[in-house]
């Protein structure tokens, strides 16, 4: 199976908010919940496109998706060793380069979607960070997403 939707979304989503620091909890208005939720839904659609694009890049480079996943997991774990052929190393490097370019484009799209929703990128990141810590906020967002 390709890198799961949640893994790629998590990777891209947390690349977006990963550099921000945790903030003190603050009130999130109903309007902000709505803005956040609309943007989050749009990001999920972009994630689906990104996953498809990543699959195409992997295949275009001549590597099987399962093999890419195995190599990538080994590359992310400094204690794991991946037996790579020179060809696989070239393929993997090309895929990662393309993925990095995709991530830059994804970040631009995300920032644009966020500001179009009426939130600042900073405020979106604050809400996303708070969401990780606040069960009540999670429930409010979940309710908004199901409406």
Task: Please state the overall shape, judged from the principal axes of the Cα atoms.
Answer: elongated
Largest sheet, described in full? none
The number of distinct β-strands equals 0
Strand content: under 5%
Share of helical residues: over 70%
Order of helices and strands, N to C?
Answer: HHHHHH
- The number of distinct helices, counting runs of at least 4 residues, comes to 6
Measure the end-to-end span: 31 Å
Q: Structural class from helices and strands?
A: mainly alpha
Low-confidence stretches: 1-9, 14-25
Mean pLDDT comes to: 84
Task: Describe, in short, the structure shown.
This protein is mainly α.
Verbal overview:
It is a single chain. With about 150 residues, the protein is mainly alpha-helical. It is built from six helices and no strands. It has helices at about 5-15, 30-60, 65-75, 85-115, 120-135, 135-145. Helix 2 runs antiparallel to helix 4, helix 2 packs across helix 6 and helix 5 packs across helix 6 (about 135-145). The longest helix has about 30 residues, at about 85-115. The protein is elongated, with a radius of gyration of 18 Å.
What distinguishing features does this structure have?
0% strand; disordered N terminus
Layout: helices, strands, pairs:
Blueprint: H1 5-17, H2 30-60, H3 65-76, H4 86-117, H5 121-133, H6 135-146
Helix pairs in contact: 1-2, 2-4, 2-6, 5-6
